[in-house]
Hints:
2 copies of one chain form a homodimer. With 659 residues, chain A is of the alpha+beta class.
Amino acid sequence: MDDQQLADSLTTILDGRWGAVRRRLRGHDDPTQFGPPDEPMSMEEHRAHTTSQLLAITREDFARAGLTRGMGGTGDIGASVTAFEMLGHGDLSLLVKAGVQFGLFGGAIANLGTERHHTAYLPGMLDGSLLGCFAMTETGHGSNVQHLETTATHDAETDELVIHSPTPGSRKDYIGNAARDGRMAAVFAQLITADGEGHGVHCVLVPIRDEDGNPMPGVTIGDCGAKGGLPGVDNGRLAFDRVRVPRENLLDRYGSIASDGTYSSPIDSTSRRFFTMLGTLVRGRLSVAGGAGAATRSALTLATRYALHRRQFAAPGSDEELTLMSYRAHQRKLLPAIAKSYALMLAQNELVEMMHDVAVQEGEAPEDRQRELEARAAGIKAVATRHATDTIQMCREACGGAGYMADNRLTGLKADTDVFTTFEGDNTVLMQLVAKGLLTEFQESFEDNSPLAMITFASRFTASSILERTPAAGLISKLIARAPSSDEDGAERHRGRQVALFVDREKHLLEGVALRLSKAAKAEPDVAFRIFNNAQDHLIRAAEAHIDRVLLEALCAAVERCEDGPAKELLDDVTDLFAESTIEANRGWYQEHGRLTARAAKGVIRDVGELCDSLAPRARVLVDAFAIPDAWLGAPQLLEPLPESRPEPLPEPLPESRP
Amino acid sequence: MDDQQLADSLTTILDGRWGAVRRRLRGHDDPTQFGPPDEPMSMEEHRAHTTSQLLAITREDFARAGLTRGMGGTGDIGASVTAFEMLGHGDLSLLVKAGVQFGLFGGAIANLGTERHHTAYLPGMLDGSLLGCFAMTETGHGSNVQHLETTATHDAETDELVIHSPTPGSRKDYIGNAARDGRMAAVFAQLITADGEGHGVHCVLVPIRDEDGNPMPGVTIGDCGAKGGLPGVDNGRLAFDRVRVPRENLLDRYGSIASDGTYSSPIDSTSRRFFTMLGTLVRGRLSVAGGAGAATRSALTLATRYALHRRQFAAPGSDEELTLMSYRAHQRKLLPAIAKSYALMLAQNELVEMMHDVAVQEGEAPEDRQRELEARAAGIKAVATRHATDTIQMCREACGGAGYMADNRLTGLKADTDVFTTFEGDNTVLMQLVAKGLLTEFQESFEDNSPLAMITFASRFTASSILERTPAAGLISKLIARAPSSDEDGAERHRGRQVALFVDREKHLLEGVALRLSKAAKAEPDVAFRIFNNAQDHLIRAAEAHIDRVLLEALCAAVERCEDGPAKELLDDVTDLFAESTIEANRGWYQEHGRLTARAAKGVIRDVGELCDSLAPRARVLVDAFAIPDAWLGAPQLLEPLPESRPEPLPEPLPESRP
Lengths: 659, 659
């Protein structure tokens, strides 16, 4: 099997169930349709460019695939999300703009609206004739969305909803599509019926611009201006001064106002209702994770290709300089990051399958399955975007001065993905939610992130079946059962021992957090917050340990699925590197809790070095398996070495130049 | 003592010996003279803006202060470097452009040239009538500068030097001031006498543009175009096609060609000569470290001010939302980074004093003192720029969506400082040099970073007086002597124990590396490289441990200098937080090497949490002590909370707006 065949085998494994979608896009007639502009552009030019790209991709069928047949779609949710992930190899401004239009604006209409909204607005959403915004975040409230201040008050006399921004902090902020293109916004606001009663946050469709693009009366539109990246996305601000829309504009799947002005909802609890609404938007987080993964793989491919031809300093006894990839310090930067990208891609595939299957079942999927999906998506989003920020930064540095040139794409990838750790849920907040989900075993509403909710839910923790809810449960138990019990040499690379170490860390951290928080539940309020605060770090560490385990399992399951042969062997080594480098990063914890002796911890460090050494010669195969066309990657300076000599010989005799 | 007085006391400590320079600049009539543009600009506009700022600051006296009296300066080197550091609070494009002009181009003429060069070029360098480049890096050689390919061949017939770029990889790359403004370049090239003999890399002044700004004959100038940041710096590429300059353009302090064509130098060894030349340029690294420090303090001030007014989620039993700074996860992001910034600022001050004193002694300073300065500058540069990249990124994330808005400055600070980890020496390379310097106790030339040099020099290591060469040596020994010997509770915050743990880690790592590398010295070449490569990570870890110790000592010395009172107490807590959080970060190592029990390691984690808790209410004082004027910081959205209510009451009755 030659290297290309080996890479192809790995690609098949990484591509997953919707590999056909990936292959079709890789062979797309016009790769530049998704790519960044060839020439530097002003922000306004870039915005126009991105809008025209957005309109062009409405001709692709993947946005339509994201809707069920009943809504005029084709119902192939997995294909839709996979295609969106592939956009992450192109211009991330387009990815985000498409995410706002099809995922957030379209998703709100599809998931929170009812048939009349679907009929009226989904066709325009799909064909781009109705560009829209998702107006949730306010200047004063990002993470704590349950406490948004915008109001939607029912006026019984005119049967309208009055949308209003009562304070400067209540203005909608950072809203994609708002500054330039949006005609309508899905506005999240506290719904108040004419009797003055509040029903919590609901979503209302509000026209924000007229046909000519002028703001509607009462709507003030601001421009967020330049950002750290994503220059093609027109983020803006929206403030409403008692703007009136028909009552029918309320997206009323989970709460409606009847013509007589009475409110009704299939869900009694205000907060539970709101978190159910948020839950339907899980696809956004999953898509951000996918886009982050694709951008990270682009960066790793660029930095790895560079490290394989860039030479600096000779080895003793030699005149020829060594490639950067020859150096341990460089291997240690790139190879564990590649291994983690494998794990994330496989875990993302599992997550997309899970979401597809839940979505296809529609309403029939058990509720805890939906909660579990939300938790998994939150955790993978946080870990994948953290990995993106750290890894793309590392790749920039690993390419030295060349990495800093905009032409070589790494700085753009870094700047564009930077906000991924923030939007669709701040990572720190999301990781707390993941831990809370695990503690409550998905029996409680997912999104409530207040310290009180954390404490209350955690106190009901029963340390039961952490292991049972995993796609690879059987395999994992089998692997653990085979783990060597002693601290013997070479034990560290045993798969069962690795898995046991991961599971053990997750379990111990979760139990510890539950114990601490259940004390808080019995304490006075001010003491309760203190206990919560002391446990906050443990909460986040527990969530990290959980996602680490999910990643390792995804790798183990992929190895198991492989037929015997070179691809399986290589993937097995990648799994070892992911496992050992993760254990290495947490070796302080493992020693503190008596899980590793000092000697075994040193063995893990040595082992990571040896794995890097043995994987370095396969680095090209490993990134080729990501199968990103060179035309998409750009940055020829990073991809290929300079020619050996000047392309044209210099003229003789010398041109004389005396200054 | 109120908070402002307390902050002022800390400012005096942090400002150091050249505090007067800092105070004068803080009160500068026109702060915008150094600041970023108010409006978004295209790259070309930004370049023009930066150039005009550069010309404006030639009227300040700090570039002149950087030259000795003999060269037409005032010889207050410390003042010059301190003023440069303060530019780091402004537009970093100006900082870098000024660094290229005064530090690199001016520094090359001053330190590598002789009187005729000083007379001819320094006045124009100072007043900006001669804008210049520092043309060292080539496309093919960045870190391994000893192997640059550009040639400077003496033509005995015409008594000229012929500057030539023989290969595509030999073109000068990323050169500041080259794309737009530079008239002359200090070009580093292999000097070859007419007899064909090579004498290693020397520096030659080469005019690159004529009076009208057109490239000189034989000079090809390219534009690097857009970069990840620093839009105001015109980085470019220079290729020379047998360009002729008079022999006198050789900067000949360390090597000259006589009129008869013979070469002579005060230093016999080619490589030693080159590294001596490089050593004179130490001020560049020190200035990058200073600029990085200033930018980091700006970012920390912005993120801390935001964390003190931004509220999200209520505590149990309360309706009022808590500030971000109330949360442990947020405290743990900001406070240890503030403590490290204190340590770095104090260590930077020590370094500036050291450099000032060595420079003022001129030639009389012992050679190992110069080498030590080079090692210290390399280490502080690497650690300060790593801290800048990590901390500014963290600050961006800690400000959520607001942190991503360009107006709020954090993304610009991140993008502009990003390349600091690369230029003036790649950090990974620099940290190896630091370790090598420690192993050879500064008896060998400093800059040679080849694996062979590392191995050879390390094999002569004698683990002697690691502690002796430190400004605070007496204090440190005293502190260690007082350390508790047992693993008793509360021991972790004891200063002597902290210092002992730092020193121990450095010593053990260095001895381990020396042992490994000395084996390599006796081995066959291919085995030797393998041993070196296995030790490369240890080499870098040893350097980190060294700089950690330098930082802790700088803090200890500052506490010692304080008069008893609230400022001393607060600085003492900051020192504890720096020490404990550094030990926490390395707790895996401490346990592996039997320096901390599992129980003690857990105690360190708990202690960091408690220190964060007790320092959080002082966070404002801690950043106010950086004394950065609000007008320089910009980003009012981060500095102050939004007004409580809409500034103007809404008109009644409601304006009706029916879409």
